[in-house]
Design brief:
Na/Ala_symport; transmembrane; about 120 residues; mainly alpha; amino acid:sodium symporter activity; 5 helices; about 0% strand; single chain; Amino-acid carrier protein AlsT
Length: about 120
Amino acid sequence: MLILLVGTGIFLTVRTRFLTWRNLGYALKSTLSKEARTKSRGQGDVSPFSALTTSLAATIGTGNIVGVATAMVSGGPGALVWNFSDIANALMAIPNLICMLLLSGEIAKDVKEFQPEIKK
């Protein structure tokens, strides 16, 4: 199954002449730039950044709920142990994320100091 999925991805990438890779910069700029986060851009009510984060949250949340239910049905009680170990691993990442958020201003200042061509 994995070979079929990867093969299909490679086939479609070549068939579309690497369209996803050619337009990756534009896609990232139009969804992650500061202008994309404002609602005043375009006709819609939702900014491109809001649409991206909402779709990612829905996909990841649904996948986690369905994944746990499928594991319990197919794997039995042993799957619950692995789900709890995954939760423990995720909880260990939280202090690192908090530190990164607290130090983000200092990191941004250092990056601007060493790379002056980066604009605000």
